[in-house]
Automatic annotation (TrEMBL):
SUPFAM superfamilies: Nicotinate/Quinolinate PRTase C-terminal domain-like, Nicotinate/Quinolinate PRTase N-terminal domain-like. It comes from Lupinus luteus. Its cofactor is Mg(2+); Mn(2+). This is Nicotinate phosphoribosyltransferase. The lineage of its organism: Eukaryota, Viridiplantae, Streptophyta, Embryophyta, Tracheophyta. InterPro entries: Aldolase_TIM, NAPRTase_C, NAPRTase_N, Nic_PRibTrfase-Fam, Nic_PRibTrfase_pncB, Nicotinate_pribotase-like_C. GO terms for biological process: NAD+ biosynthetic process via the salvage pathway.
């Protein structure tokens, strides 16, 4: 089958070329062979992909990874080289006909129903429902789980950092160098952007996904300069191009002296580090429109901030506006407040409009906890650059996505366990989100496929799937069906188009704003209710009793 068209064009393959039909566990092939050998491989099966528990001790998750799933199945075909390797990897007893079968398969007979990417989701609710021949769908299990697990985990981590930082702060993803390899780095940049981050330092992700790029310079750039005599060309052209300042270095030095002996700043600092000043001047000459300096190489308040201000004021004389500073060490709350006072004093003393609002960025192993502590302490930081704790999902290694058979040949199936949280919810289902009078989501409810949809203004009984006493009536003011068709194979069913990344990000932000604040809070959040209809509840427990073996007492 040719890859399906998306808005008139062919759906491209996965971003990562390693995502092929071989990106799966060996037992998927052994099961596929056993299905084929038994003549069961074409039996129509339904699988649910979902997770059992929200990550990071929270009560919500952001669903991500759907686009890569659809790109994968749209291009699902085995090459001869891949089939040869599968033949080598299985036992000699496998019949040749099986490999002929693999040669002919694609996902034309598969249907995928999914919650839109960027949606806030909850445990037990299917993120995807996959329908198709059981052998093929089984081969999709591992790559699907792989593509959604980390994507949803890191999007959720990003959303949690956005929640604690607040809407007004700029969030920058700086995690590439600490990410789990190139794929982890690329994926983190994409999914942090979905989760609410504003930009990334990752140039490859900027090219692949159109994510805004941000970056300044490192301590190495500052310490690579030994003094002002290293600046050979001292000139800088005015922004309007009308003339050139032939000695920008002297202009900076003049401003540094003015700051040092000004009424409001006299005595705060003495002689600044001149090699740092040389680095700042050199960087400003290279990027006069985007001069943002790392100010903690030597001493923030006695050297870095005064040197930055001297260069920024000299740039201002030539019509440019400096971008701000970055703090990468020390007491970030205290230093940001002191830097802000310094900027405000310059604005007042020298009459430079907006200088007091100079942008302050902070980095240095930041995470949810440290940002929360900074907020409680009080700070003047405008942007947070976050890396290691964000992209590695340091607080939780995996989401725990599962892929369970819920129906075969129109017969519902259930997976039982002594651990009730691991009991699956059988049959092909529909899922709805019910909203209350204030516009907040109240509860998600699963129903059997052929049950009537919940209706606005009509009372519906919502039951906990497994706990008999947990139940409540809900009169929804709005009803949203969650699962939509994103892959219809060769059927003529209407299919949703994949939205652009920016639209997914906007959806995520709007979804998070819709949630009730007590579900979102960092400490002791209120669990969101996930339920089943009365009919589905009865059926689950009927099937449970039917499938569970009856013990015998001797």
């Amino acid at each position: 089958m040719e890859a399906k068209k998306e808005n008139g064009g062919t759906i491209p393959g996965p971003t990562n070329p390693m995502v092929t039909p071989l990106l799966t566990d060996l037992y998927q092939f052994t099961m596929a062979y056993a299905y084929w050998k038994a003549g069961k491989h074409q039996e129509r099966a339904v699988f649910d992909l979902y997770f059992r528990k929200n990550p990071f001790g929270g009560e919500y998750t952001v669903f991500a990874g759907l686009e890569e799933v659809i790109r994968f199945i749209a291009n699902f075909r085995f090459t001869e080289e891949e089939i040869a390797f599968i033949r080598e990897s299985l036992t000699d007893s496998c019949e040749d006909g099986f490999f002929d079968y693999l040669r002919g398969i694609d996902c034309s007979d598969v249907e995928v129903y999914a919650i839109p990417e960027g949606t806030v989701v909850f445990p037990k609710i299917p993120l995807l429902r996959i329908e198709g021949p059981i052998a093929i769908v089984q081969l999709l299990e591992t790559p699907f789980v792989n593509l959604i697990n980390y994507a949803s985990l890191v999007s959720t981590n990003a959303a949690r950092h956005r929640n604690v930082a607040g809407k007004s702060k700029t969030l920058l993803e700086f995690g590439l160098r600490r990410a789990q390899g190139p794929d982890g780095g690329i994926g983190a940049s994409k999914y942090c952007y979905i989760g609410g981050f504003d930009a990334t330092s990752n140039v490859a992700a900027g090219k692949l996904f159109g994510i805004p790029l941000r970056g300044t310079h490192s301590h190495a750039f500052v310490s690579s300069y030994m003094g002002l005599d290293e600046i050979i060309d001292k000139s800088l052209r005015k922004k309007d191009g009308s003339s050139t300042c032939e000695d920008f270095v002297s202009l900076v030095q003049t401003w540094l002296s003015k700051i040092q002996w000004s009424n409001s700043l006299r005595g705060i600092f003495g002689e600044t580090n001149q090699s740092e000043l040389a680095a700042f001047i050199s960087y400003a000459q290279a990027f006069p429109n985007k001069f943002l300096a790392l100010v903690d190489t030597y001493d923030v308040m006695k050297s870095g901030v005064p040197n930055f201000c001297a260069v920024a004021l000299a740039l201002n004389d030539l019509g440019y506006k400096a971008g701000g500073i970055r703090l990468d060490s020390g007491d970030l709350a205290y230093l940001s407040c002191e830097a802000r006072k310094f900027f405000c004093a310059i604005e007042k003393e020298f009459g430079v409009p907006e200088f007091g609002k100079m942008f302050i960025t902070a980095s240095n192993d930041l995470n949810e906890e440290t940002i929360d502590a900074l907020n409680k302490h009080g700070h003047e930081i405008d942007a947070f650059g976050i890396g290691t704790y964000l992209v590695t999902c340091y607080a939780q290694a995996a989401l725990g996505v599962v892929f369970k058979l819920v129906e075969i040949n129109n017969q519902p199936r259930i997976k039982l366990s002594e651990d009730v949280s691991k009991v699956s919810i059988p049959c092909k289902k529909r899922s709805y989100r019910l909203y209350g009078k204030e516009g907040y989501p109240l509860v998600d409810i699963m129903t059997g496929e052929n049950e009537p949809s919940p209706k606005v203004g009509e009372r519906i009984l919502c039951r906990h799937p497994f706990q008999e006493s947990k139940r409540a009536y809900v009169v929804p003011q709005r009803v949203e069906e969650l699962l939509q068709c994103y892959w219809s194979g060769i059927s003529d069913k209407a299919r949703e188009n994949l939205p652009p990344l920016k639209a997914i990000r906007e959806r995520c932000i709007k979804q998070l704003e819709l949630m009730r604040p007590d579900h979102m809070r960092r400490l002791n959040p209120t669990p969101y209710k996930v339920s089943v209809s009365a009919n589905l509840y009865d059926f689950i427990h009927f099937l449970w009793l039917n499938e569970a073996p009856v013990g015998e007492l001797q």
